Amino acid sequence: MTLAPSAPSAATATSPAPRPPRDPLQLTERELDELAVELDTVREEIFSQRGQSDARYIRRVVALQRSLEMTGRACMLFSRHKPLWWTGVGCLSVGKILENMEIGHNVLHGQWDWMNDKEIHSTTWEWDFVAPSAGWQRTHNETHHTWTNVLGKDRDVGYNVLRMDPEQPWKPVNLLNPVINLFLAPAFEWGIAIYDVELDQFFAGNKSGRATFEDFKRVMKKLGRQSAKDFVVSPLLASLTGSGKASIKGFLAANVIRNVWAHAVIFCGHFPDGAETFTEDEVENESRGHWYRRQAMGSANIDGSHLMHFMSGNLSFQIEHHLFPDMPSNRLAEIAPRVKEICRQYGIRYTSGPLPQQVFQAWRKVFRLALP
Question: Can you give the residue ranges of the Fatty acid desaturase domain (predicted)?
Answer without folding.
Answer: 84-352
